[in-house]
Amino acid sequence: MADRIQLLPDHVANQIAAGEVVQRPASVVKELMENAIDAGAGSVKLIVKDGGKTLIQVVDDGSGMSPTDARLSFERHATSKIRNAEDLFALHTKGFRGEALASIAAIAHVEMHTRPGTEELGTHLRIEGSKVMAQEVAATPVGTSISVKNLFFNIPARRNFLKSNKVELRHITDEFHRVALAHPDVAFHFYNNGSELFNLPSATLRKRIVHVFGSKTNEKLVPVEEATQVVNVSGFVCKPEFAKKSRGEQFFFVNNRFIKSPYLHHALVAAFEGLIRSDTLPGYFLYLEVEPSTIDINIHPTKTEIKFDDERSLYAILRSTVKHSLGQFNVAPVLDFEHDRNLDTPYAFQNKEVTQPGITVDSGFNPFREDPRPARRENARPAEKGGAWEALYSGLESPRGGDKGFSSLQLESDTITGTIFDPDTLARPAATTFQLRRKYIVTTIKSGMLVIDQNRAHQRVLYEKFLKSITVKNAVSQQLLFPMVLSYTSSEMEIIRGIKDALSAAGFVFGKMAKDQIEITGVPFMVSNSEVEGVMDQLIADCQRHGEHENLSMSDLLCKTLSRTLAVKSGEVLDPGSQLALVDDLFACKEAGLSPFNKPVYVTLTESEIDKKFN
């Protein structure tokens, strides 16, 4: 029997390893930037073209490499961070992945220029598909520059699975944020297609957060600081009033490494319980320092998930620390039984001097003297000053003749105000519909009874109205008397710019658009001023969640978001006229049985089904 098991060639093994390491261009950015940080760089420059598909270049001023190190760095399981197995459990750098550069070189055209500070000349290395094409001496600055061109050039199937340039750029920007926030002492520059997106100087953590997410972020931050034997917690959380529906500002760092932890995220949500709505998320930038031996960072290929030895204690410490910070800075409501605010000096009187009160005495007052004034007539006016209390009731005595009194008063008739519904609709019998539990509308049909979910029904009605407006492009806008200026992060502004045309077709009118602000001068007639900010936040959250699905048109996503945000919620009371109007609008839709999210809108109970209940 012939042998079946054989060793794979190196280039095939490298391509298999590349599938684990390089999922998309953002994976390359993460690896190269973390290598630059580990090299001791004080300034890192990231250059991207076409969402990373054409070019990814990282330039740093770190320690550089010798010609031998430059060549060995592209070999499998080559690293400068590990000497023995015990080092895997005491990592203070970005972690060990010996296949990173080898995997990148297996699926792209790679060029490296590197020079250590002790040498006058550096090394130029060019690799294509794991094959070294050239290695020569070159004049280059101190540090390392790695260019990755034509990613997945030799694996067309993998390249076809990449998303659009905007989506890939969004993932690259997310990785850039994570590395930049983990190292505020390092300067970062980010260029995309020749234009500068970020210029982050070396600064404190608070300034770094403000530089990344905009100037308005400064007023949102609440500092967090706690040192324990288990973990040292530092960083910032956002005030409860700035909670959003999107997941854009949630960052956990453990030993300066970005991680994702649903367990720790739940601890943050528990700390904000009662301060934010259930459908919103708090923002936070928290840095945890633990002993490297108490965590395992090798449970996930991308190193974004780690395992803690004592997660329960960490959960309790994190929740109590955030609660304490919110209460300490008067963000969360607290009770102080030792302080009486009624005894506080009003702000307007704090700097005024106390004056001695004066006393005046009427020396001519005689309590036994009769009033010399003439008797008051029945219809006389009460005296302006010093009048008796009986004067308040003058003119109210009913005459003894009985011809005048309350019987002569004329009452105004009740004015019947207009209604927004059709009078013919309101003229129908009120018993045709009724609201059940403030959630369902129950009405009768020929075959039995109809139970309608009021929220889903209104979603369907609004969805078709918005879809028609966007398709025909005849949406009606209402101009705002005072334009609204909303602030967003740079990544959120990119999303808004991408959907601006669809928003304009739906009825939104935009003014000036700055780097981190947008001006809205008009909104659709079905959107009130107070709902604009909520609609925009929900739209950004939906785009972040579903933006990678290319088959989902932006117009359809916009209509679904608007319908879900503006629809009547469960728990709202509807009068009989509104119930009838909603039922009529629902069955005038093209697809009345399903909501925009493919959920049933109503159910029918036939007369026979009701009869069976009584058998």
Give the overall pLDDT as a whole number: 82
Q: What profile does the largest beta sheet have?
A: 8 strands, mixed
- Spatial arrangement of strands, main beta sheet: 5-4-3-6-2-1-7-8
CATH topology of the largest domain: Heat Shock Protein 90
Using only C-alpha atoms, the radius of gyration works out to 36 Å
* Helicity, as a percent range: 25-40%
Query: What's the CATH class label of the largest domain?
Result: Alpha Beta
Class based on secondary structure composition and strand pairing = alpha+beta
- Counting DSSP H or I runs of 4 or more residues, the number of helices is 17
Low-confidence stretches: 375-380, 382-386, 413-422, 425-431
Strand-residue fraction?
15-25%
CATH architecture of the largest domain, please?
A: 2-Layer Sandwich
CATH homologous superfamily title of the largest domain: Histidine kinase-like ATPase, C-terminal domain
Shape: globular
Distance linking N and C termini: 74 Å
| Quantity of strands, as a count | 22
Number of separate domains? 3
Outline of this structure?
With 615 residues, the chain is α+β, with helices and mostly antiparallel strands. It is 30% helix and 21% strand. It contains 17 helices and 22 strands.
Q: What would you note in describing this structure?
A:
The protein has 615 residues and is an alpha+beta fold. It folds into three domains: 10-200, Heat Shock Protein 90; 205-328, Ribosomal Protein S5, domain 2; 431-477 and 496-508 and 527-603, MutL, C-terminal domain, dimerisation subdomain (formyl-coa transferase, domain 3). Helices cover 30% and strands 21% of the residues. It contains 17 helices and 22 strands. The protein has helices at residues 10-21, 25-38, 67-72, 100-106, 156-160, 165-182, 205-213, 262-271, 311-328, 423-426, 454-472, 490-498, 500-506, 532-546, 554-566, 576-586, 607-613; strands at residues 43-49, 55-60, 109-115, 122-128, 131-138, 143-149, 187-192, 195-200, 221-227, 232-238, 250-254, 257-259, 284-289, 295-296, 307-308, 433-436, 440-445, 448-453, 477-487, 509-513, 517-524, 602-606. It has an eight-stranded mixed β-sheet. Strand 20 (509-513) and strand 21 form a beta hairpin. The longest helix has 19 residues, at 454-472. The radius of gyration is 36 Å and the shape is globular.
